[in-house]
Design goal:
The protein has one domain. Helices cover about 70% and strands about 5% of the residues. It has five helices and two strands; from the N terminus they run αααααββ. The radius of gyration is 20 Å and the shape is globular.
């Protein structure tokens, strides 16, 4: 397994467990139009994050888990933006350094999701038996027309 997958697996596993153990921590970042279902959405996202983390661990489930992980990261992006907006409001009202630091960290985190989505998409393009989709052969195999060493 590639080490870069841990950039998806680790945060998903930790966050997923936190969503299930302490859903109240996450309910406030559900965007306003969806708040009627805030508890259900937090629990659902926790189950999805744990499932994606587990799926990325095994080669046979990695492809589906990679695509699902990328979709989940895109789906929760509005909640992360809502968190940044809420932290900005809090920082403006209170003005203390800690509030501004929390806001800055939440904003800095938003673009960092892009490389994590790319990692998940790469995992989604990995075939469990090692056949590369673009060439239709196992990784490392040569086609009949490829140059051979020593020939």
């Amino acid at each position: 397994m590639r080490r870069e997958l841990w950039a998806v697996i680790g945060p998903f596993a930790v966050s997923g467990v936190l969503h299930l153990m302490r859903p109240g921590l996450f309910e406030s970042i559900i965007p306003a139009p969806l708040r009627r279902w805030k508890r259900e959405l937090v629990i659902l996202s926790g189950v999805a994050e744990c499932s994606c983390a587990a799926g990325l661990l095994h080669p046979r489930t990695r492809r589906v888990a990679g695509w699902t992980s990328a979709a989940l990261l895109v789906a929760v992006w509005p909640a992360n933006m809502q968190m940044s907006a809420d932290l900005a409001s809090w920082a403006w009202r209170h003005g203390d350094a800690g509030s501004w630091v929390r806001f800055a960290v939440s904003v800095a985190r938003l673009p960092l999701q892009v490389p994590v989505i790319r990692i998940a998409l790469r995992a989604g393009r990995t075939d469990p038996v090692g056949i590369t989709p673009e060439r239709g052969r196992r990784n490392g195999e040569r086609s009949a027309d490829s140059p051979r060493s020593g020939a």
